[in-house]
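Progress narrative, Year 2. Work on Helix-turn-helix transcriptional regulator from Intestinibacter bartlettii advanced from sequence curation to structure prediction during this period.
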Amino acid sequence: MDSTSLTPIEVAELLKITKNTVYEIIKRGELPAYKVGKKLRIDKEDIDNYIKNQKKGKSSSSTKQLNQEIVKSEISNNKEIKSDDKNIIICGQDMILDILGRNIENTLPSIKSYRSYMGSYNGLINLYNNKASIASAHLWDWETSEYNIDFVKKLLPGIPCTIINLTYRIQGFYVKKGNPKNIQGWDDLKREDLSYINRELGCGVRVLLDGKLRELNISSNEINGYNSEESSHLAVASAIARGKGDFGLGIEKVAKQIDNIDFISLQKERYDLVIKTENLYNPIYKEILNIINSNEFKDELVGLGGYDLKDTGKIIAET
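Result:
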């Protein structure tokens, strides 16, 4: 089986399509991709599977909706967009944020919504530096077992912020189908016979892992694969499915979209939006809150599955 790793340009040449089309296929979740350093890579095996699926006419709507995490937004790579009354920049990696951005543009035609696919930690820093309008966060504090509030206070010091719930998600381990290594929970991080696939610094998953290591008094040096990083839930699950590691941490929804993967549920996390409180007096942000609280927006998220919407739109805290 050929496991050659290709760049998006090479994939475009192979399939006789444009590079932008390759990015769109990846964003729709139809073609797994992963990062090597800062470069996007696609395995030849996954390209072959994509071609086979196209021949069979296989086109799962849930797969198409799955993921826009791998491909970075234009504001991350190509040009600097200013966060102002005409441009709303949303930081975060969950596909719900893409749906929110689309709803913002549909409701407010004069506003352009941009997505910046970065982790929670860096998203809050961008919010502090006025490079983002809204930041998503799922940062677990191992000392308090609370999500986001202390991080917002520390990363936006002295700046009043409002934390609004978007959804709850289940975090757990991706393992190979059938769980051949009998991985059960956090204590398995101590096992010397397992190889781990990690996430990049600054993302909520990495913060959760490092917090659990502190809680369990485990050194990162004890974990085989701790320095093996991928840049999204999808990339971690795909790496496990391809046998590049035994387990890795991510959200349950992605596990349901990848073949040859099982999921070990570990923890429910709160996924919030963070907005500077002064902006909530702006009619644009008031309308954004109306969108989040609307039945239409929530119904669309229900259709995706895998999200707990019991507190969607609820103000969790004001810092």
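The chain has 13 helices and 14 strands. The chain has three domains: 5-59, 74-167+272-307, 170-268.
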